[in-house]
Amino acid sequence: MNHLRAPVLSNIEVMPGVHLMRLEAPGIAKEARPGQFVMVHCGGDTFLPRPLSVHRVEGDRVALLFSIVGKGTLWLSQTKKGETLDMFGPLGNGFTINPESRNLLLVAGGMGIAPLYFLAEKAASQGKKVTLIHGARTRDALLPVSLPQEYYEKGLPPAGVNVVTATEDGSEGFKGLATQLIPHYLKGIDQVSACGPVAMYKSMAKMPELKDKDVQLSLEIMMGCGVGVCYGCTIKTKKGLKQVCKDGPVFGMKEIIL
């Protein structure tokens, strides 16, 4: 784990209320793998650091994609280029790409795209065939493809990744929920990885089509310390109590109790 003050290289609003921040963090960039996160200290009157998924790694740089949900992330959204942030990581257990897997299905609900973009890039770079379903309430909540190439130099979406969109209001792609598309893209799929709200996971757990699949879920939950000391993110699993920050945030779907 690295504890450092990372210079902010850029901080732009890519969607309403959603920011993409790039930082110089060599140690974290070198060790990070998809599904892991960092803890970022915020200014103002905030006390606890905020957990943010690693969205991308670009050489010595780390990209974080986050939405403004409170005082901490509001403060982060106002951070300027050249300022530094106190942060530590990477933390937690991320997604596993099985060596034998050839076809991966990724399912992102809303801001679940944050860690899954990193996973999509990684899997595609290993020669895997990747399909990414991204669902949101409206097209304004989907990661736009018109961002400057300097932020996504390998392309958006990454080369080799088939992106399928779903919006609840039908403003882009399939009209409905991302989970409704899952059965249509399971043929030949070796493993499924998802990140989104608990309601999405409950729906997936009821799907007979996923019963015999390797399904990994990334849990989004409030955290205090990020290293397993405060027990603030403890959940019940079929194997007993687990800490999301230390044992997760990625768990097998058959392991957790939804």
Describe the structure.
The chain is α/β, with parallel strands linked by helices. It has 3 domains: 2-91, Beta Barrel (Elongation Factor Tu (Ef-tu), domain 3); 103-218, Nucleotide-binding domain of ferredoxin-NADP reductase (FNR) module (Rossmann fold, 3-Layer(aba) Sandwich), CATH 3.40.50.80; 220-258, Dihydroorotate dehydrogenase B (pyrk subunit), domain 3. It is built from 6 helices and 15 strands. The protein has helices spanning 26-31, 71-77, 113-125, 178-181, 198-205, 244-247; strands at residues 2-15, 18-24, 37-40, 50-58, 61-67, 84-91, 103-109, 129-136, 161-167, 174-175, 191-195, 214-218, 234-237, 240-243, 250-252. Helix 3 (113-125) links the parallel strand 7 and strand 8 (129-136). The mean pLDDT is 92.
Summarize the structure.
The chain is an alpha/beta fold. It has helices at residues 26-31, 71-77, 113-125, 178-181, 198-205, 244-247, and strands spanning 2-15, 18-24, 37-40, 50-58, 61-67, 84-91, 103-109, 129-136, 161-167, 174-175, 191-195, 214-218, 234-237, 240-243, 250-252.
